[in-house]
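Hi C.,

You asked whether I'd gotten around to modeling the 120-residue construct. I have! Everything is below, sequence then structure, no commentary in between.
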Amino acid sequence: MDGYKIFYEGVSEGNFHGIVIYVSKDLTVTQMEPNIPFRECLLLRIEMAVGDTIIFGTFYRSPNTNCDNDSELLRLISYLNENYKEQLIAVGDFNFSNIDWQSWTGSGNKKNIDEKFIDV
């Protein structure tokens, strides 16, 4: 598309759904690649007009995922929160059916992944 830069992850890989983000060419954007094996995400560092930067992350978590993948998702979000001062905007399909997104409550069992996600 004219006027946009295209960033993508996993689009040509058979085991992944693929993520694509279009960003205005007027913005300075760098694709981030943290050394954490959660693969179905795309992280961009975007420089804003006022000199600030934000991290924009698009995530996909399969509803059929395994515990290791869930752990890597939590580790990635924790890593971003602990190592970057920028604001993090996280969007996507996390497939946490037990989370009430209006009240930010989950199953009530702190051992469940939905509660761990809320806490991170």
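If it helps when you're writing up: Helices lie at 67-83, 113-119.

Thanks,
B.
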